[in-house]
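Title: Prediction job returns without error message
Component: structure pipeline
Severity: low
Priority: P3
Assignee: unassigned

Description:
Job completed but the reporter wants confirmation the result is attached to the right record. Sequence as submitted:
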Amino acid sequence: MLLQHLITFCRVVEEGSFTRAAQVQNLTQPSVTKQVGALEDHLQVQLFTRQGKQVHLTPAGELVYDYARQVLHLVAQCEAAVQEMRSPGSGSVTVGCVHTIGLFTLPDLLAAFVREHPRVKINVKTGNNRETVAMLLHGEVDLGLITTPQVHERIAVIPLFEDPLVAVASPSLAADLPPVLGNADLARLPFIGYVRGAQFRNTIDQILEEMGIQPKFVMEFDNHEAIKTMVGLGFGVALEPVSAVRQELDSGQLVRLNVPGLPQSSRTTSLILRRGERRSAAVNAFLALLERRYAVEISPAP
């Protein structure tokens, strides 16, 4: 029963209340309360504090939650390994990635993988770089794809490709600009960018500062799709990763501006894996695809 107690405990944490945890598990609230209480009795600690209808983890609860997620991940791995043994060529792969990779890089990879392994189930979870690393460490994903460098004793990082930043505009706006833009020319244009405080926005601000540009941001968004749309409508220019605008550049919906003073800057898209962990056949198949696609070598798990 301890495993079920851990499942219920995690559900309470993730749903933020005993009531919602009971609803999603099709249990009564007293049953959920009893299971969490039994876990507290077993561990001899208090896992939650309550403020009205809200529950919050105690320091001991945070520790138990971290281990509980790892336990549930190991159980899922065990089930997947047995399923693969019973039915070779099946299994599942859960990929964690940042939003830009999920939108612009992952679809082509998944299409190629599904063609080769049609019986493998693919799951995708997105978040920012920090959230993707956390999902990997907590065992919620089998592998991660991120865009910022990471150093962690439990994580192996394999760079896959460089993603340069380019200045883009709509064809109509670009037609009224000089063929070669100086820094002063770029500074006079309205900018469309990521929301202030986001990691990508911090990178853009740093680049523009190095160029001596104090940009006038007329629009800010929390996703690249909205930025591209507004740039395409002619409301301003933007600095975007090539991977995010490649399709629009190829189709002519956007134009790459020639700005010699723009520093050569790129984001490194990297694969992250937990060190020293057994990998399923399905995960190894996905890693083999990455090796072929990006000409990298991924060390085998022990």
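Comment from assignee: result matches the submitted record. The mean pLDDT is 91.
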